[in-house]
Amino acid sequence: MRLATVEQHDRQFAHDAPERPAGSQAEGIAATYLLGHLQQAGYLVRLENVPVEDLVRSSNVTALPPDGGAATLIVAVAYDTPPSEAAGGEAIGTFLEVARAMRVIEPAHPFGFVGLGADNAALDPGRLGSRRLAQQLLDDELEPGIILIGETLAGESLTLKGDLAPDLWEAAKAAGADASISKEPVDVFSAAGFPAAEMSGDALALGRTLLEFLAKLGV
């Protein structure tokens, strides 16, 4: 887990595309950025259409498991921003760095990585990228675990919620990270019946914890 690489991704988004509302050119640039870096890490990547409004579309950026099978677990992160709000890319950078590191640790691992488009769109019912992913998995009769990377806050202890939180807490302990568990469900994915967790907190601690968790699952 290379914190310098995460920081580089963060600066790139903060400088070039701080506002990335759903369906915008900036969101499209962010999708291309994710696609390129996931391909560079050795993944087969595809774009899944996420309808937003009439004539407005977004995409989920989906990196398929390198082992060629169905994903046993999916790591996801939203890459758009709420309308008129700016944000860097630390969470996105953490997502990309975990995906890269997993290819080094276990080149043929069974995990997928999905950048969620339009997940912050101000449209009912909300979380459009998450809903598109959940529905696609249900249609395909797949039941992977879902881990959502939430807000990253430098120096903050990890907050873990969802029914996979206890397993992630054990991974945090092994990685030397402080973590607490919330009983809250994970929006969309828990309601759809997937085993899920959401992680927020310090980017380095989050990345190390997630890699610890995935490495043990991939053995």
Q: How does the major sheet shape up?
A: 8 strands, mixed
Radius of gyration based on Cα positions? 16 Å
Number of domains: 1
SS field, number of helical segments? 6
In the predicted model, the low-confidence regions spanning at least 5 consecutive residues are: none
Please identify the top-level CATH class. Answer: Alpha Beta
What fold name goes in the CATH topology slot?
Aminopeptidase
Percentage of residues assigned to helices: 25-40%
Query: Terminal Cα separation, in Å?
Result: 19 Å
Work out the strand percent.
15-25%
Q: Output the strand order for the largest sheet.
A: 1-2-4-3-5-8-6-7
At the fourth level of CATH, the homologous superfamily is: Zn peptidases
The chain-level structural class is alpha/beta
SSE order, one letter for each helix or strand: HHEEEHEHEEHEEH
* SS elements, strand count: 8
CATH architecture, by name, is 3-Layer(aba) Sandwich
Report a brief summary of the structure.
The protein is of the alpha/beta class.
Task: Tell me about this structure.
The chain has 219 residues and is α/β, with parallel strands linked by helices. The protein has one domain: Zn peptidases (Aminopeptidase, 3-Layer(aba) Sandwich). The protein is built from six helices and eight strands. The chain has helices at 3-16, 25-40, 90-105, 128-139, 165-174, 203-218, and strands at 45-53, 56-63, 73-78, 111-116, 145-152, 158-161, 179-182, 196-201. Strand 6 (158-161), helix 5 (165-174) and strand 7 (179-182) form a beta-alpha-beta unit. It is globular. The mean pLDDT is 93.
